[in-house]
TrEMBL record:
Its EC number is 3.6.4.13. PANTHER family: ATP-DEPENDENT RNA HELICASE, ATP-DEPENDENT RNA HELICASE DHX35-RELATED. Belongs to the DEAD box helicase family. DEAH subfamily. InterPro entries: DEAD/DEAH_box_helicase_dom, DNA/RNA_helicase_DEAH_CS, Helicase_ATP-bd, P-loop_NTPase. It comes from Syncephalastrum racemosum. This is RNA helicase. Signal peptide: none annotated. PROSITE patterns: DEAH_ATP_HELICASE, HELICASE_ATP_BIND_1. Gene3D superfamilies: P-loop containing nucleotide triphosphate hydrolases (3.40.50.300). SMART domains: DEXDc. It catalyses: ATP + H2O = ADP + phosphate + H(+). Keywords: ATP-binding, Helicase, Hydrolase, Nucleotide-binding.
Length: 273
C-alpha cells in the first residue's frame, strides 16, 4: 500500500487518478446497465457462484459443514439457498434457514429471492425478524436475523425443522452469531443429518474449518468440514480515501453514496427506472 507524503497530491484525488480507473468505472456502469435488462434466469447464471453450483452440492452431500468464502456480489446469499432447495433439501416439510446480522438485510434479500423464484413473499420464501413474521406453513427458504434463530433454539433445541442452516456474514462476529455457532456445533453431534454453511466475504476459513471438523484423526477422509472459495465479483471495487479527516464516518459514507448517485445520474445519463 502506497503512503501519502506531505506536499503530494492527496490520495483519492481525481487529479492523480489514471484513465484506466475511469475506464473501469465506465465499463462497470455499462455492464450494470446491460445486466438489468437480462431475464432473472440469465442474471442468476452470470453470478460467480453459479460456476461452482455442482461442487457446492457435492460438498453438502459429503460434509456436515461447508465454509464458503466469496467476494461481495458473488451471489452467495441469494443463490445458495435456492440451489439447496432445487436439490431437494426442503423435501418432507424441511426448511432452509439463512441468518443475517441485520433486519433490513433479511427483509430485502427475502424479497429478491421471492422475485427470482416467482412466488409471493411469505409463501415459498419468507423472512422472520423481531415483531414481524412473514412466513407460512409452506415456506421452504427462511431469511432471519441471527437473534431470531437463537430464540428458536429455546423452543426447539435441535432445530428439527431445518435441514440446512446458513450463517451469513459470519465475519461480523455479532453476539448472537458467536453463540449460534457454538450451539449449532453441539446440535450437529445429535443431528448428523443437519448441514451447516458458514459464508462471508472476508473470513478466517481455517479457524472455522478446525472448529467444525469433528475428525480426530489425521486422515482427511474422515473430515466433516470443507472449504469452498468463490472467485470473481460482479463489479470492480476501488478503494478511495478522504482528503481530510471526518467527524462521523457513517454520515460521511451516506453523503458520499448520494454524491456518487447524483454524479453518475447527471454525467453518464443512465435511464433510471
Amino acid at each position: 500500500m502506497a503512503f501519502w507524503k506531505p506536499g503530494a497530491i492527496a490520495p483519492g484525488s481525481t487529479v492523480d487518478r489514471d484513465t484506466e480507473a475511469e475506464t473501469d468505472t465506465a465499463i462497470a456502469v455499462h455492464a450494470d446497465k446491460e445486466f438489468r435488462y437480462l431475464t432473472i434466469k440469465q442474471q442468476r447464471e452470470r453470478l460467480p457462484v453459479f460456476k461452482l453450483r455442482r461442487e457446492m452440492l457435492y460438498l453438502m452431500e459429503k460434509y456436515q459443514t461447508v465454509i464458503i468464502v466469496g467476494q461481495t456480489g458473488s451471489g452467495k446469499t441469494t443463490q445458495i439457498p435456492q440451489y439447496f432447495d432445487e436439490a431437494g433439501w426442503t423435501a418432507n416439510g424441511k426448511q432452509i434457514a439463512c441468518t443475517q446480522p441485520r433486519r433490513i438485510a433479511a427483509t430485502s434479500i427475502a424479497e429478491r429471492v421471492s422475485e427470482e423464484m416467482n412466488c409471493k413473499l411469505g409463501h415459498d420464501v419468507g423472512y422472520l425478524i423481531r415483531f414481524e413474521d412473514q412466513t407460512s406453513q409452506r415456506t421452504r427458504i427462511k431469511y432471519m436475523t441471527d437473534g431470531m434463530l437463537f430464540r428458536e433454539t429455546m423452543i426447539d433445541p435441535l432445530l428439527s425443522r431445518y435441514s440446512v442452516i446458513m450463517i451469513d456474514e459470519a465475519h461480523e462476529r455479532s453476539l448472537y452469531t458467536d453463540i449460534l455457532i457454538g450451539v449449532i456445533k453441539k446440535i450437529q453431534k445429535k443431528r448428523p443429518d443437519l448441514r451447516v454453511v458458514i459464508s462471508s466475504a472476508t473470513l478466517d476459513a481455517e479457524a472455522f474449518f478446525h472448529f467444525f471438523n469433528h475428525n480426530r484423526t489425521r486422515d482427511p477422509v474422515h473430515d466433516t468440514a470443507a472449504i469452498l472459495s468463490l472467485q470473481g465479483r460482479m463489479h470492480p471495487v476501488d478503494i478511495l480515501y478522504t482528503e481530510t479527516p471526518v467527524d462521523d464516518y457513517v454520515e460521511k459514507t451516506v453523503q458520499t453514496v448520494f454524491d456518487i448517485h447524483t454524479k453518475v445520474r447527471t454525467e453518464i445519463n443512465i435511464p433510471w427506472d
